[in-house]
Design goal:
Blueprint (H helix, E strand, L loop, with lengths): L1 H25 L11 H32 L10 H10 L6 H15 L6 H34 L2
């Protein structure tokens, strides 16, 4: 349980920074001249970094740890496909496709070429969409943990 709380604390910290950047990005149109202001570039870089780290932490650590602590699985070595199917059944994620979409967005970001402005803008918009999904999934996980804690 302590390890789960540490993972949640770490994600909460990353979410704070990501949320600040997310709100700033949503407040203004993102077009090619957006990158003329270096401050905007820093916001984008911070947002994308936190988005990627949050996605990694949730996928690599949190999903399995939650299911293990809540006694939905017997081992944290369960294949990701099975983990996602259980999360879908528990309505923590809407569908396996939803998580695959978030992973796909993250992979696009890691193969981005900063000099291609149109691609960069598209990836920022995709990351914003992905962050909104990620935030919803994270909220669902926290609700699930609290509900199960109350029922025990």
């Amino acid at each position: 349980m302590e390890e789960l709380e540490e993972i949640i604390k770490a994600i909460d910290l990353m979410m704070v920074g990501c949320e600040i950047d997310y709100k700033e990005l949503k407040e203004q149109p993102i077009a090619s001249d957006f990158f003329d202001n270096y401050s905007n570039t820093r916001i984008v870089n911070s947002f994308l970094f936190n988005y990627s780290k949050i996605q990694d932490k949730i996928g690599a650590k949190l999903f399995r740890k939650v299911l293990y602590v809540q006694k939905e699985i017997d081992s944290e070595t369960l294949p990701m496909k099975d983990v996602l199917n259980i999360l879908e059944k528990l309505q923590i994620i809407e569908s396996v496709y939803e998580w695959d979409r978030i992973r796909e967005i993250r992979n696009n970001l890691s193969h981005e070429y900063p000099y291609c402005i149109d691609e960069r803008i598209e990836n920022i918009e995709l990351a914003i969409e992905g962050y909104e999904l990620l935030k919803k999934i994270y909220e669902n996980i926290k609700k699930y943990c609290n509900l199960n804690r109350e029922n025990k």
